[in-house]
Amino acid sequence: MEFFDKESTNSKMDTHNKVIININNGKKKLIVSPGNSLLFTLASQGIFVPSVCGGRGICGACKVKVNTDVGDYLPKELSHMSKDEIEDNVRLACQVTVERDIEIILPEKLFSVNKYFGRVVSIRDVTHDIKELKIQFSEEFNFKAGQYVQIVIPPYGQIKQSTQRAYSIASLPSKKHEIELLIRLVPDGIATTYIHNYLKEGDKLEIIGPLGDFYLRDTNVDVICVAGGSGMAPIKSIILDMLEKGLTHRHVWYFFGARTEKDLFYVDLFRDIEKKWEKFHFIPVISEPENPELWNGEIGLVTDVMVKYLERVIDKGTSKEAYLCGSPGMINACEKLLKEHGIDKVYYDKFA
């Protein structure tokens, strides 16, 4: 099956100065213009390889097996590659320039990732630096609780080119025509500055998705969830989905870390879930309380509190799996501590 360069307006394809991207041993062939990265060339043809960082070579998410010699590995690639991946010719699509015919292998699931156009129907502050964004679609948007989307950020202000950033979905999959996102303001961040300072209710957004393998596994074991900041999003979606589907026979322990009281949000929501779900436990943790005499919850690092509960409160005799979302530092510390306590099934999204 061949797909022609979408920029062409000719009824017959002019292959002069074009190159061929051969995908999955000829299952798909794209005839495209050379000169751009493999990541953006594929996106221009409607094939969206995950890229949390928008193609800057930071996240390492856009790994693609390349069966053609495309030159030496770039330094940005090597920091994300294992020895086995290098031996298997796995490359970062954002760091490979399409200059000649190329053969690549892609996971079949990427062919079901699509671009949608949504309308922003609600923008709400949930903390001093996190906004809850609600987006509606005219067509169905189907996803698994825990997955994420990529938002296409248009040019604005001094930003002359569009870019993409990844955000986890915070809402229920059963809401087929809308999603909610949680966006924390990052100082000088291109995407978050646009969302916090330029985006308005009623505006349209391009959304690519759904993406990601972070979702609840089909088991009956107890669940440990740990998140911080806007890492709340996929955990909220997973917990709401479990409640809606009646998966309340499983114990769920949700540890949410915040720096101060003003960084906590959705506390009332999870306290209400505790009343409906006997085996659900919400443990908010503050590391630097502004009013320690008024705060009657846990104080310290969320990882330390998790360990305290694993050793003193949570039943040691049950099997468990963990779901984490937050900064790379928090994820790495959590994973190490969980494995030290016999929990090897650990699933996560890292957001730098």
Automatic annotation (TrEMBL):
Domain of life: Bacteria
SUPFAM superfamilies: 2Fe-2S ferredoxin-like (SSF54292), Ferredoxin reductase-like, C-terminal NADP-linked domain (SSF52343), Riboflavin synthase domain-like (SSF63380)
Tagged with keyword Disulfide bond: no
Annotated FAD-binding FR-type domain residues: 113-217
Keywords: FAD, Flavoprotein, Iron, Transport, Ubiquinone
Pfam families found in the cross-reference section: FAD_binding_6, Fer2, NAD_binding_1
InterPro entries with a match to the protein in the record: 2Fe-2S_ferredoxin-like_sf, 2Fe-2S_ferredoxin-type, Beta-grasp_dom_sf, Cbr1-like_FAD-bd_dom, FAD-bd_FR_type, Flavoprot_Pyr_Nucl_cyt_Rdtase, FNR_nucleotide-bd, OxRdtase_FAD/NAD-bd
Domain 2Fe-2S ferredoxin-type: 17-110
Gene Ontology terms for molecular function: iron-sulfur cluster binding; oxidoreductase activity
PROSITE patterns recorded: 2FE2S_FER_2 (PS51085), FAD_FR (PS51384)
PANTHER family: NA(+)-TRANSLOCATING NADH-QUINONE REDUCTASE SUBUNIT, NAD(P)H-FLAVIN REDUCTASE
Name listed for the protein in its UniProt record: Na+-transporting NADH:ubiquinone oxidoreductase subunit F
Lineage: Bacteria, Thermotogati, Thermotogota, Thermotogae, Thermotogales
